[in-house]
């Protein structure tokens, strides 16, 4: 292998890897749920073996290790599911099911031998509607002869032989195929084909390529048995590296849509069916973020809420060492440039897109514990233990860790130095590690638990395609996995639990019933499935639907056909196979029920609230490279009060730096009119945070206090001076001079109470952070009202055991029921803190139940939650949908100091790996912050295996600021009086993002209070998924705890920060402010 050749391919390699319930179970105690059967038992001795050459290897064809697929179906209609596996360089193989897990290879006899070209995805489908399953095979590879890339269609002759006829049917597509997906996209009751292809120009990853027809995905319409390419007219013209697709009705309009997973920087597509023969990509409108290197995918209603969710895989390793050696740092500049060019927010994690209805999704992979499964290929949702919940199988492994950063650096160095290298010597430099596939057990609460070892999936492998079916007809799902350079896995499921299976016979030209939806309703809920065989990666599963039931009894089975016909079967017995035929279906006249919502959206454009929060561009990371998120975007805030004494509540909304605040006066018709305030215009240079209307001078009107915060200026700058505006009684505000003391903290919070019982209102001002020195603790202030001025008395009035912390919210509240106002303070890297008021002196109080409460808290609100007469508290935290984990079994810590004496304050986030603490961030970005790290650790492997003490030094860490988080979950605190508090974790539905605010209000007029929850936080560093999953929620207290109230009508989008209700004559207006965006509003009826 010459130097010239290596130079030509090393750049390609570098770009590629850089971008790239109750259960009836009678199995024995010693028997795992699945048994891996040997080839000597099953007869399936298939191996997908790959041979690299100088002309064809991973350097010039990066997809060489993508592997093959599995297709399962009953080829000969004997009631037993047969298995077909694809080999990339050798012949595929067909194994006939003989019963009892005995299979017979019949490839040659069936006429299916095929070693032409490079085989990828495979499918079983009755393409000619004759009642026998045919086989479709996709081709790809770095092949210059298009005929060798022609996909193949093997027509089943009905006698266990096949005839290749792709050209005759119009399906000999010569693109670079990954997999074909069969669906009836135009609802004409026949089967059409969507083919996922990939671009061949792997050396062109950083440029925007023109569309090459043979590299674009293709759509073939079935016209009386002939397939016509309608890609151009249907809007399927793209230029991506497609690796899989998922078919489902994602927007619930009755028409099938297509989600396409694309590798590298090209974003995924969500092609929504326009019902006119075409598709429109709506990924930007529908998903808040997606994977970077999207691989395999599957669709299922994993939480049994009646809506179909999406799982997309990427390549992020769960293991700390593998993650730090195989994945490079994300470039902030490249990330932001891609978003600016119309690409998506893309992250190198698996994505679990939870369907929220109305074509909106919340991505919850981290909370569900499925975000990191290494170099992954096939996700499959299926109820593997028959408990009524769909579990998740993920295959993974790559024959060569081509993403290994040390390998890339070594190769680059050798090329640069013109060292001679053979292909074998290059291959020997690349690490290789087999790892077990993942199996996740559905917990029924939007989370999964890892069970691969307990369930018998602990064998390390390089696994790719996979499929499931009930291979032995015993009522559970078995699994077949295609491995690279190893025998295929055949797993027998040993579960014995209740089930229901449905064998569907569709209309004449769609005999498999593709697109049919089945809903099984039990006494414990409902399950929904749609028939689409192509799932996971390069594979197709059995079209016999399988429902696990646990101990539930079936109340109804509803079969809905794409043309609107239905079959309602009522109560049926469990543990059987129901045979359903389209011929028995009838059109239904059922009327859809109109839902009554207690909250209804209001168009703010019609009522005068024309506010839009607008952040100015500012790079917080220029001052602190490893900030976890921006500290300059904490607004907006609002304050509600009647400022002009007309009996109507008015609204003040703060602005970002460079944006004037706005005062909206409510008119008698319920609309608002913006009232120009010269004082606000003059103070537009400030970053407005919390604001407070209160009568500081006791003249009978409400004045306005505004906290100045942000991160745009260095500490102690005049930029952080808070402001107090005097009200003339008519709603005209002027800035006071000399009333407030000099305030130089970057604050966020202001609260008022008469803390010294002298008849006027004093203030607590919470310091948010020290600019450019995260996570240093700022000062918080007590301002005593002395009539014509405020005096800072913090040193005398705050008797603390330690500085409060980075305050994000606070309440004056009578915690101990002694008649005076105590302070409850929450913040980042601090515990829930109670400061007991002792005659105007606030003292730290050790409260039972709050000892281990250090979190990244962001909001607090008071209410008598349980109706026992005392005050309880709702506290918002970072949430559980994050790569950061804290608690009894997880460590999450932060250190801060100028470790290299460079004049900048360095940040070290820490978690636990096995028996040691390790840095969260990788070698590259850590070295950019502190250059000596690169000198100390010459390789990524050395850094990955080092503890945080070994990286930074024990003495240096001992001298640094240091905090430990105990809990990231949002909670409600049950007040037990003298016995302290109990922390109750709020439902997982509201743990999917940081909670930034609560509003407690009776939304339905029944006399009980509900809780409006809002949250998110978008401005996060690019290696951490931004917090965008929250769509808002309504909580109701029931049976001793909070539950989400569905169908309330409350659903929002965006980076929501604050929520408040404004009283109006025809009902309260619920207003939600969002960072860098327009507000949303709802009317309470």
What features would you describe in this structure?
The chain is mainly beta and 1085 residues long. Among the domains are: 51-314 and 349-376, YVTN repeat-like/Quinoprotein amine dehydrogenase (Methylamine Dehydrogenase, Chain H); 599-888 and 966-1084, YVTN repeat-like/Quinoprotein amine dehydrogenase (Methylamine Dehydrogenase, Chain H, 7 Propeller). It has 17 helices and 76 strands. The strands form 20 sheets. Strands 56, 57, 58, 59, 60 and 61 form a six-stranded mixed beta sheet that branches. The longest helix is centred in the first third of the chain and has 17 residues, at 3-19. The radius of gyration is 31 Å and the shape is globular. The termini are far apart. The model is unreliable at 1-29 (pLDDT under 50).
Give a summary of the structure in a few sentences.
With 1085 residues, this protein is mainly beta. The termini are far apart.
The biggest sheet amounts to: 6 strands, mixed
Q: What top-tier CATH class of the domain at 599-888 and 966-1084 fits best?
A: Mainly Beta
How many β-strand stretches? 76
Number of helices: 17
Inertia-based shape:
globular
- How would you state the average pLDDT, rounded? 94
User: Helix fraction?
Assistant: 10-25%
Give the oligomer, counting copies of the same chain as homo and different chains as hetero. single chain
Structural class: mainly beta
Say what the CATH topology of the domain at 599-888 and 966-1084 is: Methylamine Dehydrogenase, Chain H
Rg, rounded, reads 31 Å
CATH architecture of the domain at 599-888 and 966-1084: 7 Propeller
According to CATH, the homologous superfamily of the domain at 599-888 and 966-1084 is YVTN repeat-like/Quinoprotein amine dehydrogenase
Tell me the strand percentage band.
35-45%
Low-confidence stretches: 1-29
Q: How far is it from the N-terminal to the C-terminal residue, by CA?
A: 75 Å
